[in-house]
Amino acid sequence: MANVTTPTLLIHGMNDTTDTEPQSMMLFTALKDLGTAPVRYLRVPREPHGFREPRHQRRRDIEEIRWMHQHVLAQEWTPWERPEEEEEPAEVPDEVGT
Q1: pLDDT by residue for the chain (98 residues), tens digit each?
Q2: Residue 47 sits in which domain range?
Q3: Rg of the chain in Å (alpha carbons)
Q4: Is residue 55 domain-resident?
Q5: Is residue 71 within 8 Å of residue 37, measured between CB atoms?
């Protein structure tokens, strides 16, 4: 552990029975205490070892891309967001029944 220098992102599904939360927390705590590399830990509710909910899959993807941009490319990255649609007023005909 003392030689770890790679930035590490841990994303843990709370219903994961393959790698339990205590295991992930032990790794996170050890890396954090060493202080030899950046480390971040994200907990995701209701997810098993492979994420199933689309919202959680998107969050995972965004966090991984942001992490890679920051620690590999030394760039800040902001995910694309859908612009809010402006409601167009409904067209009202000038004359009815012509």
Answers
A1: 889 999 999 999 999 999 999 999 999 999 999 999 999 999 999 999 999 999 999 999 999 999 999 999 999 999 988 888 876 666 655 565 54
A2: 8-71
A3: 22
A4: yes
A5: no
